[in-house]
């Protein structure tokens, strides 16, 4: 049985402030429209309110998603599961409770001990925890210090090999010093995190006045580990904005798809030496709907009517009238005059109306002279009720003439859209590494589009005057898709601010009526081929009214087909950023898992993972440089580890199918407010202007554009990297009187292939792996004399010592023998 889709946005949409382009939505989450005279209240949207919710974990997250709730953003992992905010009606609150969701009271919910915000944080930079041994039962994964708005924070992540034990639950205690050579103190209990029944780690965030030098973690089962504190988001190249004469701040308002595309075409026309437009081949379904009406209430006598023509192409001109004629023993019939349809209801021998909803539906589909495409009983009704006559003709409408209060005048262009790609680069011949920036897969996410446009503007405006920008444009080939979901984005701007998906209606009759018009469409970031819901992975829905509906098949939608076409045609695309909002996460693979056993899609090799982390540190350092917004390290990594499982996402497909370093970015993270001691969360459509130190669309656009520009620099350097990596076995070859623990180290992110059986190492040899996810490389406990033979390959494909692993000759691989003396 299909459930009706329930509007539930994790973060209440605030009042929208949209300069001259788009103006305010005055109520959070709701989409006020002018009342439509003569239409059924069944076709209106329910009013919603914000509530805080707690889910027991990813299994419940999937269950609630499948029920039609939208809970994809603003989630926080807590020891008891997942917390977030929801926009729901009173009836929907009851349905959530029936699903087992806890509704939190004001002030209720998880808070970190002695933490300012109750959120999570982590650090990046050189890994400074002590080398592991094979026997360690407690490991410090991260110990990270950062500052924001003049305040210091410590994030710690630790793991115990006995963490899965739940009876009794293994506890962990954290202590830190107050600087080098100071005593331990500040003992606190760490929080244990479990996802889909699997132990993840213990972690905590603390606000501290003094930067610690070391931490000590102690397990309740006796294990102890010490880790040195690292600095998160330090040591990146200077921001481009520090260059004298560097120009920025080009975008001054939110932009709808028409404006974004028009500006892309203008840029290509104004800067033909470095820019051009590529038009994607698959046109969207269009900002258009069939005209509809629900006639006769909700009972067995109700009928839903859909026009054959799109509303703007004549469907909106159709009227339907159910007519009671005098007499008895009269057959059911249909009369059509122009666009006016009169259904002449049947009468029985006693002169009573005798046409059922099913019979009337069939008559409309077969006798309306092609005006009606679909007619059917209301939702799951079987249609046995007797249809009543209408008091007047009922007009069909596509409901696209209802504008949100304050939206600009004028109609959005109807019909299918051709999506332009703005390509920027001096050498657009495939000889330079390509970078794909894809924004607004999800319609309601407005900041990603302005962030991407701002980045494009910076490239063309600074090309002739800023040497660093010139290097980027000369050494990369950048492809901007400023809005990958123009139909849904227009619907978000003009009809339903909470719209996430495109506008393609794949629903059968049971879910096809006007009151569900905001529940149709495909989640484009669930429509890809790797780790999809069709393969059993979690985080995508088979329900056509769910906001994570994956579509009827993989790559069913033109918007996703276009991405695959683009990366196959332009094989030089080696980097990709799918820009989303909101939440302040930067992530990559694995992005999905099967909840039963938490079986993820393949994790990247350790070298690729290290390159992702290194790139993330640089990108996020540039975000911080704008106004000290810190994306915290617990929000960085494999998306299934830091967020949730998202089956069929684009990043998974591009990395695993084409080898593209594919990032996902949730811009608009929390900003610390020193005046209140709290972190202010983001939203999909924050007010454009506002306190420059807090959440606003303008500030988010500028700071995250900084990050995208740094990604271009990373790609340019990657393309010029011809230096092979270096690797060592630690402690190295030699004679040892007892068994010894050894591990590999590299001078840059690189993947190591090795053998211990005397054979020549190749790309098919075992790969050096992480001890655990988010941890450094594994430790080999060598008990007998063993020879390691290996080589390393960096992220740019350079092989150590120019070794050729494919040819069965040459011995310029690395080798070391560990001799264990008897």
From TrEMBL:
Similarity-based family: Belongs to the peptidase M14 family.
Name assigned to this protein: Chitobiase/beta-hexosaminidase-like protein
Keywords: Hydrolase, Metalloprotease, Protease, Signal, Zinc
Keyword Plastid found: no
SUPFAM superfamilies named among the record's database cross-references: Zn-dependent exopeptidases
Any single biological process term in GO: proteolysis
Signal peptide as annotated in the record: 1-24
Superkingdom to which the source organism belongs: Bacteria
GO cellular component, one term: extracellular space
Cofactor(s) it depends on: Zn(2+)
GO terms, molecular function: metallocarboxypeptidase activity; zinc ion binding
Every Peptidase M14 domain range: 376-712
Record: active site: 666 (proton donor/acceptor)
């Amino acid at each position: 049985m299909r459930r009706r889709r329930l509007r539930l946005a994790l973060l209440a949409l605030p009042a929208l402030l949209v300069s001259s382009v788009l103006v305010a939505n005055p109520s959070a989450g709701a989409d006020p429209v002018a009342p439509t005279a003569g239409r059924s209240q069944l076709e209106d949207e329910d009013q919603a309110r914000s509530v805080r919710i707690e889910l027991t974990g990813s299994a419940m997250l999937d269950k609630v998603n499948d029920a039609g709730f939208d809970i994809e953003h603003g989630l926080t992992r807590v020891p008891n599961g997942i917390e977030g905010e929801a926009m729901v009606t009173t009836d929907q609150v009851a349905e959530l409770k029936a699903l087992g969701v806890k509704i939190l009271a004001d002030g209720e919910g998880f808070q970190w001990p002695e933490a300012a915000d109750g959120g999570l944080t982590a650090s990046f930079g050189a890994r400074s925890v002590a080398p592991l041994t094979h026997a360690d039962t407690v490991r410090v994964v991260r110990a990270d210090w950062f500052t924001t708005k003049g305040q210091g924070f410590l994030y710690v992540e630790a793991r115990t090999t006995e963490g899965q034990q739940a009876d009794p639950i293994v506890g962990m205690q954290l202590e830190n010093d107050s600087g080098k050579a100071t005593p331990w103190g500040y003992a606190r209990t760490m929080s244990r995190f479990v996802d889909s029944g699997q132990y993840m780690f213990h972690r905590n965030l603390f606000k501290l006045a003094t930067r610690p030098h070391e931490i000590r973690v102690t397990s309740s089962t006796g294990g102890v580990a010490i880790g040195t504190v690292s600095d998160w988001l330090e040591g990146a190249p200077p921001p481009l904005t520090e260059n004298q004469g560097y120009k920025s701040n080009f975008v001054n308002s939110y932009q709808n798809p028409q404006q974004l595309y028009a500006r892309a075409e203008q840029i290509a026309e104004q800067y033909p030496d470095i820019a051009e437009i590529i038009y994607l081949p698959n046109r969207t379904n269009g900002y258009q709907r069939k005209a509809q009406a629900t006639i006769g209430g909700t009972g067995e006598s109700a009928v839903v009517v859909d026009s054959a023509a799109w509303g703007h192409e004549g469907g909106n001109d159709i009227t339907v009238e159910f007519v009671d004629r005098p007499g008895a023993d009269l057959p059911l019939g249909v009369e059509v005059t122009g666009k006016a349809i009169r259904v002449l209801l049947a009468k029985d021998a006693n002169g009573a109306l005798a046409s059922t909803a099913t019979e009337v539906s069939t008559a409309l589909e077969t006798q309306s002279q092609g005006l009606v495409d679909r007619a059917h009983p209301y939702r799951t009704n079987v249609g046995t009720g007797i249809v009543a006559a209408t008091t007047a003709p009922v007009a069909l409408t596509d409901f696209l003439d209802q504008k949100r209060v304050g939206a600009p005048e004028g109609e959005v262009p109807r019909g299918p859209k051709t999506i332009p790609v703005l390509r920027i680069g001096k050498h657009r011949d495939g000889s330079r590494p390509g970078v794909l920036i894809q924004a607004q897969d999800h319609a309601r996410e407005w900041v990603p589009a302005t962030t991407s446009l701002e980045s494009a503007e910076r490239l063309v405006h600074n090309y002739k005057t800023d040497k660093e920008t010139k290097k980027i444009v000369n050494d990369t080939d950048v492809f901007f898709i400023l809005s990958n979901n123009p139909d849904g984005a227009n619907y978000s701007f003009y009809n339903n601010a909470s719209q996430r998906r495109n506008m393609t209606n794949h629903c059968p009759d049971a879910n096809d009526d006007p009151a569900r018009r905001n529940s149709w469409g495909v989640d484009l970031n669930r429509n890809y081929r790797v780790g999809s819901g069709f393969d059993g992975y979690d985080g995508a829905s088979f329900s056509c009214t769910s906001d994570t509906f994956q579509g009827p098949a993989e790559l069913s939608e033109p918007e996703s087909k276009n991405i695959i076409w683009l990366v196959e045609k332009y094989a030089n695309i080696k980097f990709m950023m799918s820009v989303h909002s909101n939440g302040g996460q930067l992530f990559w693979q694995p992005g999905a898992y099967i909840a039963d056993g938490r079986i993820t899609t393949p994790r990247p090799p350790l070298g690729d993972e290290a390159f992702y982390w290194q790139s993330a540190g640089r990108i996020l350092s540039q975000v911080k440089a704008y106004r000290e917004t810190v994306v915290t390290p617990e929000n960085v990594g494999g998306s299934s580890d830091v967020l949730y499982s998202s089956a069929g996402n684009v990043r998974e497909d591009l990395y695993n199918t084409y080898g593209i370093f594919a990032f996902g970015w949730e811009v608009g993270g929390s900003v610390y407010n020193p005046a209140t001691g709290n972190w202010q969360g983001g939203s999909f459509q924050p007010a454009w202007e506002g306190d420059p130190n807090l959440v606003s669309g303008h500030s988010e656009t500028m700071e995250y554009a900084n990050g995208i520009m740094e990604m271009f620099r990373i790609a340019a350097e990657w393309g010029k990297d011809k230096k092979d990596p270096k690797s060592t076995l630690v402690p190295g070859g030699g004679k040892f009187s007892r068994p010894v623990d050894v591990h590999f180290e590299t001078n840059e992110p690189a993947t190591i292939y090795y053998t211990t059986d005397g054979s020549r190492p190749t790309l098919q040899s075992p790969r050096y792996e992480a001890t655990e996810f988010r941890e450094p490389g594994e430790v080999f406990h060598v008990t007998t004399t063993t020879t390691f033979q290996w080589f390393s390959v960096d992220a740019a494909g350079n092989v150590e010592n120019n070794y050729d692993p494919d040819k069965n000759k040459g011995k310029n691989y690395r080798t070391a023998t560990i001799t264990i003396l008897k």
